[in-house]
Amino acid sequence: MGNRNRAAEPASRPFPASAGVASETDRALLERLRRGDEQAFEALVDRHHEALRRVARTFVPTAAAADDVVQETWLAVMCGLDRFEGRCALRTWIFRILVNRARTHATRDARHVPFSAIEQDEGPAVDPAAFDADGHWLSVPPRLEADPEASVLAAELRRHILLIIDALAPAQRAVITLRDLVGFESEDVCSLLHISEGNQRVLLHRARARVRAGLAELVEAPG
Amino acid sequence: MRFWRPHRRRRDPLVCREFVELVSDYLDATLPRHERARFEAHIAECDGCAGYLEDMRRLIGSLHDLPDPPSDPTTRAVLLRAFRDLRGQP
User: Fold this and answer.
1) Which pLDDT score is estimated for A7?
2) Residues 6 or more apart from A123 whose CB is under 8 A from it?
3) Do residue A215 and residue B59 have CB atoms under 8 angstroms apart?
4) Any idea which architecture A123-219 has in CATH?
5) What are phi and psi of A98, to 5 degrees?
6) Domain limits, CATH 1.10.1740.10, in chain A
C-alpha cells in the first residue's frame, strides 16, 4: 500500500530551523523591547513563559521554585536587553539565562538530585512483547490520532500529550520540550543543557518513543 | 568509500524491533547513509513500521504546534509592571 512513497519523503524537521544568530525579526523585536514597548514584551512573555516553566521544572524540585526561576529570568531579560549583542537568537539567550538560574537554584537545594545525574533509561522504544522471536511485529501496531488539528478530541489529546511529557524523567522532559515543543535545533539543546550530541539523540529518541507509547495506550484503552 | 564495519553487517535486512529504535534519528536526518538505506528498504516492505514512522512524524510535527495554556494573569501583570518600571517611557 503506497509505502514506497513514504520512503521517498524528506526526513527533514517538520518546522523551520531556529536561527543560530539573532534574525531580522529578533532585531526588530529587540528594538521595540529596548524602547519599552509593552506590547512587545507581553507578546514575548506569552510566547515563552509556559515553555520556560516546563524547562525550569526539570531542574528544580517544585513548581513554586520553577516559577521563581522563570520570574528571575524575565527580570534578567529586562535588565540585560541593552547588553544582549545578538550573537545568538533572542530565544536562545532567554533560555540560556533560564538554565543558568535553574542550575543555581538546583545547586542551592541540597535535597534535589542534580540534572547531571540523569536517569539511566536503557529500555527499548517499544515493549519487546510486541515482537516475535525474529524481531517482527506480532500484529500491526495501532495507529495514532497524532494530529491534534485533525482530531475531534483535540483539546483532550493535547492535555494527554502534555501529561505524558510531564511524567517523563527530567532529562528526557528537558530535551523533548526544547526540541519538539519549543523547536530548538539539536546544537542549541546540547549547549543549553551541557550534554553531548549523542546523549541528546538518545534522550530525544526515548522521550518521543515514550510519548508515542503513552498515546498508543490511550488508543487501545479509551476512557 | 570504506567503512570499518564488516560489509556483511550492512547488508543484513532490518527487523521491526531495530527499526523502531532508529525512527527518531531518521526523522532528524541524523541516520548514517548506510543505515538509512536499510531503514528505507524496510519501510517499503512493512506496513506496521511504515505506520509507526508516519505516526511518529505527525506526532513530532504536532508537538510543535501544541499551544501552551495561557500564563497566569497575576504573574503576567507582575511582569508587565516590572517591565514598565524598568524600561517604561516617562
Assistant:
1) 43
2) A206
3) yes
4) Orthogonal Bundle (1.10)
5) -60, -50
6) 18-108
Comparing CB atoms, the residue among A136, A161, A209 nearest residue B15 is: A136
Mark yes or no for CB contact A201/B89 under 8 Å: no
**Mutation target vs B (from A4, A5, A6, A175; most B CBs, 10 A cutoff):** A6
Position A85 scores a pLDDT of 87
Are A171 and A55 within 8 A, CB to CB? no
The pLDDT, as a whole number, for residue A18 is 47
Read off the C-alpha cell for A58. 526539570
Helix (H, G, I), strand (E, B) or coil at A131: strand
Q: pTM for this one?
A: 0.82
Alpha carbons A10 and A12: distance in angstroms, whole number: 5
How many contacts, defined by CB atoms under 8 Å, are there between A and B? 169
* Residue B20 contacts A, CB cutoff 8 Å: yes
Nearest to B24 by CA among A11, A60, A64, A23: A11
User: A6 falls in which pLDDT band (50, 70, 90)?
Assistant: very low
Residue of A34, A137, A143 lying closest to B16 (CB–CB) = A137
Taking alpha carbons only, the member of B53, B44, B57 closest to residue A3 is B44
Indicate the residue type of A114.
P
- In the prediction, which pLDDT does B17 show? 95
| CA quadruple B80, B81, B82, B84: dihedral sign | positive
Closest CA to A99 of A168, A171, A12, A169: A171
Are B62 and A148 spatial neighbours (Cβ–Cβ below 8 Å)?
Answer: yes
CATH number for region A18-108: 1.10.1740.10
